[in-house]
Amino acid sequence: KVLPTSGGVYGIFLVSNGEAMFIGDTQNLRSTIYNHLLMGTEHTSIIKRLMCRDQNLPQITDISLAKVWLKENCCIKLLVEENPRKRLLLSNGLRFLLDPTYVPEK
Prior knowledge:
Blueprint: E1 8-14, E2 20-26, H1 29-38, H2 46-53, H3 63-73, E3 74-80, H4 84-98
Antiparallel strand pairs: 1-2, 1-3
């Protein structure tokens, strides 16, 4: 399936139980999901970097293992929203409601 290039909010969820792993917002969903989440390096992929540091996932010791784990265990859901203010409100609201395992670093 082709991802939209518009802005929006995305969530990474565990397939097994629907638990939210990460909620983020972006100006370009396709670029962020492909470059940062699927193909990203330790410097560009927030969730992979956080997973490598997570003591609850001792089997994930590097970025490549995090990538494989994400592909095997997670799904991505999207909300398209072009307005930056609304995107921020949506992502913050979803983080509050869903309490994801990983929160973007400041």
